[in-house]
Automatic annotation (TrEMBL):
The active site is at residue 317. Catalyzes the synthesis of alpha-ribazole-5'-phosphate from nicotinate mononucleotide (NAMN) and 5,6-dimethylbenzimidazole (DMB). Its EC number is 2.4.2.21. Coiled coil: none annotated. This is Nicotinate-nucleotide--dimethylbenzimidazole phosphoribosyltransferase.
C-alpha cells in the first residue's frame, strides 16, 4: 500500500489576496480597530483559508478515530481497555460528549473504528476499517508495522476526501483509545527531543504513582526507538492507529484546502506530526483549546499556537474543538454582516 499523496506533497498556500481584503474590511467596520480581539484575526485567517470575501465554517465534519493500544499492558491507564469499544457504542447511540455537541452544532459526526480488543457489532454512524485489534506494546516493540501505519494514514486521508466531496469548510478530528496519552507523549518527546517527565501527565486520571509508572514506560519506549528522527519511523514506532489516522486526516484536509480546528493533546500531537512532515500544514490549523494535560503546553509552543479557550478540559473526542466552534461562527458573522462606517453613516476614527 502506497503512502497518500498528501504525505508526499506540500499543501497549497492560503489566499493572501483574500486575507488582505478581509484585513481591510476589518479596518472599516463600525468598531474601534482591534476591539473584537482574536475574533478579527479568526475572520481574516478564515478568509484566506477559504479563499472568499464571505468566510464561513459551515458545513462542518467531525470525525472520531478510535483504536486500542498494546501499551495498556503496562498499566498506563486508570480505565480498562474495553472502554474503547464501549465508547464507540456510546458515540453511535448519541450519549458521548462529542455526540451531544455535534447534534447541538448541526455538524455531521462520523466514527472510524480502526481496531479494538473488544468486538463491536455494526453500528449506525460507525465505519469499521479494522487494522488490528490493537497496536503492539510500544515499550517493547514498534507499535505498528509499516503496512499498518500506511493503512491508518490512508484511512485519515480518505476521511478528508469524503469531507471535500461533501463540500465541508471545516474539519474537526477527535480521538478515542485507552492508553493513547502514553503514545502521544512518547511521540511528542521524540519529535521535540524532550524528557518524558516534562510531557507525561495523568491522562484518564492516574495518581502520582501511576504517572511515574507511565513516565518509565515512555522512557523505555524512547530508549528502544533510539535516535531515528524520520517522521514516518517515529509514528510507526511510537504512535497509535487513531493518532496516525488523525495525522493523515490533517495532511489530507490541508491538501484539499479544508481548515482544521485542532482539539486537545492527542490531536495536537497528530498535528505536530503532520507539520513535521509538511511544514505548510501549519497554515491550515486553528487551535481550539489548551488541554489540562501537561504535554499539550509544549506541543502548542512548538507549533506557535495560541488556543482560543483554556477551560481545563482533557476529555478528547474532539469535544474541546466543538466547544470552540461557536467562536468561529461568531467571527464569520461579525465580519460578514457588520456595517462599515460609510454604510452606517458613522464617523470613523480621527487620524490625529
Amino acid at each position: 500500500m502506497a503512502l497518500p499523496n498528501s504525505w508526499l506533497t506540500p499543501p497549497p498556500r492560503p489566499s493572501t489576496a483574500h486575507a488582505a481584503l478581509a484585513t481591510e474590511r476589518q479596518r472599516v467596520l463600525t468598531k474601534p480597530p482591534g476591539s473584537l480581539g482574536q475574533l478579527e484575526q479568526i475572520a481574516i485567517t478564515l478568509a484566506g483559508l477559504t479563499g472568499t470575501d464571505q468566510p464561513t465554517v459551515d458545513p462542518i465534519h467531525i470525525v472520531v478515530f478510535a483504536g486500542d493500544h498494546g501499551v495498556c499492558a503496562e498499566g498506563v491507564s486508570a480505565f480498562p481497555q474495553e472502554v474503547t469499544a464501549q465508547m464507540i457504542a456510546n458515540f453511535a447511540s448519541g450519549g458521548a460528549a462529542i455526540s451531544v455537541m455535534a447534534e447541538e452544532l448541526g455538524a455531521s459526526l462520523e466514527v472510524v473504528n480502526l481496531g479494538t480488543v473488544g468486538e463491536i457489532p455494526e453500528l449506525p454512524g460507525v465505519l469499521n476499517q479494522i487494522i488490528a485489534p490493537s497496536t503492539a506494546n510500544l515499550a517493547e516493540t514498534p507499535a505498528m508495522t509499516s503496512s499498518q501505519v500506511v493503512a491508518a494514514l490512508t484511512s485519515g486521508d480518505q476521511t478528508a476526501e469524503r469531507a471535500a466531496r461533501a463540500k465541508c469548510r471545516l474539519f474537526i478530528g477527535g480521538d478515542m483509545g485507552i492508553g493513547n496519552t502514553t503514545s502521544a507523549a512518547a511521540l511528542a518527546c521524540a519529535l521535540l527531543d524532550q524528557a518524558p517527565h516534562t510531557l507525561v501527565g495523568p491522562g484518564t486520571g492516574l495518581n502520582t504513582e501511576g504517572v511515574a509508572r507511565k513516565t518509565r514506560v515512555v522512557e523505555r519506549a524512547l530508549a528502544r526507538h533510539g535516535n531515528d528522527q524520520d517522521v514516518l519511523s517515529v509514528l510507526t514506532s511510537l504512535g497509535g492507529f487513531e493518532i496516525a489516522a488523525l495525522t493523515g486526516a490533517i495532511l489530507g484536509c490541508a491538501a484539499r484546502k479544508i481548515p482544521v480546528l485542532v482539539d486537545g493533546f492527542i490531536v495536537s500531537v497528530a498535528a505536530l506530526t503532520a507539520v513535521h512532515r509538511q511544514p505548510g500544514v501549519r497554515d491550515w490549523l486553528i487551535f481550539a483549546h489548551r488541554s489540562a494535560e501537561p504535554g499539550h503546553h509544549a506541543v502548542l509552543k512548538a507549533l506557535d499556537a495560541s488556543p482560543l479557550l483554556d477551560l481545563g478540559m482533557r476529555l478528547g473526542e474532539g469535544s474541546g474543538a466543538a466547544i470552540a466552534l461557536p467562536l468561529l461562527r461568531s467571527a464569520c458573522a461579525l465580519h460578514n454582516r457588520m456595517a462599515s462606517f460609510s454604510d452606517a453613516g458613522v464617523s470613523g476614527k480621527s487620524e490625529d
